[in-house]
Amino acid sequence: MPNETEARETLAGWLSDRTPTQPLTAEDLADWPTAPVGEWQAFTLPSPANQVYLVAGSTVFAFAPSRFTFDQAFAAARAQQAAQTKQAAQTKQPAQTKQPARAKQAPRAERMER
């Protein structure tokens, strides 16, 4: 079950990144209706709007219920989350592959000294 406070903070940061002239905090979203839906926290605007935000971890997926069913939105949100996870793993991977290369270089240096 998602943590509502963390999800609200993630959504505020995500929205602030898209409108840097109007940064938001979690407190600014306090009156936004929200409910847990599976592994997601769903947020809607306090006024009538055709926008829903699904938040899980660092993933935010915005969709219009008039254009997507919730099942379609969940599938797209999961795909986006998987892509972000894969990208984060690839970003970390170069640092991990460099260490074994350094370990292999040490024995070569020892051989040259002999």
Please give a structural write-up.
It contains 2 helices and 4 strands, in the order αββββα. The protein is an alpha+beta fold and 114 residues long. The longest helix is centred in the C-terminal third of the chain and has 44 residues. β1 and β2 form a beta hairpin. 14% of the residues are buried. A 4-stranded antiparallel sheet has the order 1-2-3-4, with helices on both faces. The C terminus is likely disordered.
Task: Tag the structure with descriptive keywords.
114 residues, alpha+beta, 4 strands, disordered C terminus
Strand adjacency order, main sheet = 1-2-3-4
Q: Give the class from helix and strand content and strand pairing.
A: alpha+beta
Average pLDDT for all residues: 83
**Helical stretch tally:** 2
Record field, number of beta strands? 4
- Percent strand equals 15-25%
Distance between the terminal alpha carbons, to the nearest Å? 60 Å
Q: Could you give the order of the helices and strands?
A: HEEEEH
Query: Measured on Cα atoms, how large is the radius of gyration?
Result: 21 Å
Q: Any low-confidence stretches, pLDDT <50, length ≥5?
A: 95-114
Which geometry do the CA atoms define?
Answer: globular
Oligomer: single chain
Q: How helix-rich are the residues, as a percent range? A: 40-55%
- What's the main sheet like? 4 strands, antiparallel
Summarize it.
Helix content is 52%, strand content 17%. It has 114 residues and is an alpha+beta fold.
